[in-house]
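Protein folds are increasingly written down as discrete tokens. With that in mind, we are printing a sequence and the tokens encoding its fold.
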Amino acid sequence: MQLRLRTKLTLVMTGLVFLVVVVLSGVYFARLTGQVIQETYNRANELTQQVFAQARRRWQTRGKAGCKRIPTRRRIGAITCGGHSNETKASRKNYRRRLARTPGCTT
């Protein structure tokens, strides 16, 4: 089947327009994706800096308050199995009491 010249030109122009739209959409999508990744990286970096700054301030104020260092868990007599210790409720209760008696210290 032979196509007329007008039909051939219409198909060629339609193909070129379609090609230009696809290329421009790809470029736009690539730039948009890069921008989103950069913004996510910047937010994560800022959040990391805030967390470390808060931890640093907490550590410095902890030293000024005169708090003594209390371990997070009492390990005397505790047997650790698979990352969990079999401490008794009484030892956890004693730890909480010691922590509450220390002025200016919180967990």
